[in-house]
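If I may wish for something, please sit down with the protein I am sending here and say whether tokens and residues agree:
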Amino acid sequence: MRLNAAGALAALGLLVAACTTPPVAPAPAPPAPAPGVEQGTPGWEITHPGPEHAIEGYADRTSVLPGDTVRLFVSTAAARFTVTAFRMGSYAGSAALRTWQSGPVPGRVQAPAVVQAPASTVVAPWQPSLEVPTAGWAPGDYLLRLDGDNQAQQFVPLTVRTPSNAGRIVLVNAVTTWQAYNRWGGYSLYDSPSGQKAQRSRAVSFDRPYQARDMQGAGDFLFFELPMVRFAEGLGLPLGYATDVDLHADPHLLDGARAVVTLGHDEYWSSAMRANATAARDRGVNLAFLGGNEIYRHIRFGPSATGPDRVEIDYKSFTEDPAHLTDPLEATPEWRSPPYPRPESVLLGNFYQCNPVHADLVAAGAENWLLAGIVHNGEHLRGLVGNEYERVDLAVPTPRPIEVLFHSPVTCGGKPDFADATYYTTASGAAVFSAGTQYWICGLDPGCPHSDGDATAGAAITAITTRLMRAFADGPTGTTHPATDNLAALGIR
């Protein structure tokens, strides 16, 4: 879920006029570069998006291992175009480092979108335009910028995943959520060209570009993910990189990992994604959820003509999904919904409630090691709850012991409520932190629009997140920092 709104990536100089994009967390200003930090590449941003369909493309995979070759499918009115690969992260003077550039490639306008029955699945039935080698590329999050000789520009996202995540904190790109909201070709899992939600897609394909408007072809990476990627890389910790398609496909992805971090909007999860994350937690891998609406939609994957796991299926209904007759546990209502409810709280600790809201974070667990010496109980961090939120709800299964770190009054849909940031620990030694708000990552930026750039709020979120990441990098954090249940003290029953 998300709220129609307008946002800005002010720190990157990107104006995002977003009819359907949620309020945007600007990328944090990186710390002053330490000696030896690599100089970044300025001018990576899109400055000339051009008219709709002037240039656009997609890759044949959401992620690759270093050295793999990626096929790009590009359609453009330009006679020629080039592709420039930027690794996104924490660099001196920039959020990007140029790693590769193609020579001129002949352009052509490819076939129009095809809407496939019965699920109204949009595909771009295109021929490959070029192959991109990734030999020598470091693991990380990349944007491939398409530049036409007609001055039009667009991004294609690509993750170069880490061959082994042993000893690393794994940052997971939520590409399933990006694709769920992608309206390229007129359809998404929410919308149809008619505007009638009943005619929306029931399955969406990665064999199409991300829309230019709102997404700049980059999915939600610029809005919900790049700020945390820059922040995490600036800490100098051992990081791994993957997408949630990798979390679905590879049960060994998290072998030996120290922690997993999901970013600002990670709503769409398959059974395998959830099983693999849960298994990792149960063998001591720490988990951090830095959004406010995770593990809400249940999806499954199917193949496309391009390869496996390229179609994301979500009927948002048990009885409408044909799988309810053949494999009912893989039918796709919300995770919490009958007839087989499996609430997200089992893994998160807190439980999605409502949107939109915009309120202060209010500290309630200042005795906890994450908050101690940084905030005091009752302290407000301006504007950092929104636009979706979670709270502890003991009407659904909830891990115990669990600590509520921030217990923030909100009003949503005319009803008073609380947004809760939570921390719990398990017998395996794993610790699980859930921010319970989509604006947490925005707080890492001194210019965060949701907090009006409040310096106290920014300093607190930066200090807490730094403490969290450094502890999680050391291994099972629950062994050294076990949770102390405080629900009764807060009147949560």
